[in-house]
């Protein structure tokens, strides 16, 4: 998937010069995010690509974004569709007809949120996992750690499961075996049959987060696509079963359990445990300290 901030300037020029069609106002591209968040993601992506960006909020809660880089000036319009959804239109200048649809690269920009490159670098360590239990397919996410082909992920739904199918970021699908499962920590270790470089947890983990600090999760959807979700730390850790959990204001989608969450500098903030029952935007992270405890016990043969 292409990150807008990494595109060459000529590609960006082509991206934002889609020919206007006719003079009619065609259907806009829907986005499953509130208009302010959609606009913020577009602003960050454009700014990271060298554009000077300004925004103007106009009637009806619409947000118009102007991006300029020398003589290259572009305009985007973000409009609310509902409290939790928006639509995006764009054109070469404000007020001119806008092209229908949306380029794949701009769609990727919206989905990834204009997150820092340090966060996006963690995508190569995300594994998309599948297993079957009682005739039902289970999909979830995991984080490659160390250098021996080890994945750490959640443990719920994995009782009576021994083998999983692992999709790596290079597209390969390899078998995995559950080496250890710890329901009290809601963590499991999956061992691969080959050495695959992973995230250096001891060097790049944070066990202390701050209220309202931004965090970014990377989790699997549709069996193999990694989606980014941005959220904020809710406050001090809560206890569940005597163990701490970070509460976050973040959309937690099916399949993302076990995926990593990073701070703005690319340090691991925890693993996504799941969402609070009955909510869409309140989730929990398993802290780095709990993960290190679990992996330390597993390395000592504590099964």
Shape: elongated
Which whole number gives the mean pLDDT? 80
Q: Roughly how much helix do the residues carry, as a percent range?
A: 10-25%
What is the spatial order of strands in the main beta sheet? 6-7-8-11-10-9
Q: For the report, how would you describe the main beta sheet?
A: 6 strands, antiparallel, barrel
Number of helices: 5
Q: How many beta-strand elements?
A: 18
Low-confidence stretches: 1-27, 93-101
Kindly estimate the percentage of residues that lie in beta strands according to DSSP.
35-45%
- How far the N terminus sits from the C terminus, by CA atoms, comes to 38 Å
Task: Name the helix and strand elements from N-terminus to C-terminus, one letter apiece.
Answer: HEHEEEEHHEEEEEEEEEEEEEH
Cα-atom radius of gyration: 21 Å
By secondary-structure content and strand pairing, the structural class works out as alpha+beta
Q: What features would you describe in this structure?
A:
- Helices cover 15% and strands 40% of the residues.
- The chain has a 6-stranded antiparallel β-barrel. A 6-stranded antiparallel beta barrel has the order 12-13-15-18-17-16.
- The longest helix is centred in the N-terminal third of the chain and has 14 residues.
Protein topology:
Blueprint: H1 9-15, E1 29-31, H2 35-48, E2 52-58, E3 62-69, E4 72-82, E5 85-91, H3 104-112, H4 117-120, E6 126-133, E7 136-145, E8 150-153, E9 163-167, E10 173-182, E11 187-192, E12 214-221, E13 225-233, E14 238-240, E15 243-249, E16 260-262, E17 268-275, E18 283-286, H5 288-299
Antiparallel strand pairs: 1-5, 2-3, 3-4, 4-5, 6-7, 6-9, 7-8, 8-11, 9-10, 10-11, 12-13, 12-16, 13-15, 14-15, 15-18, 16-17, 17-18
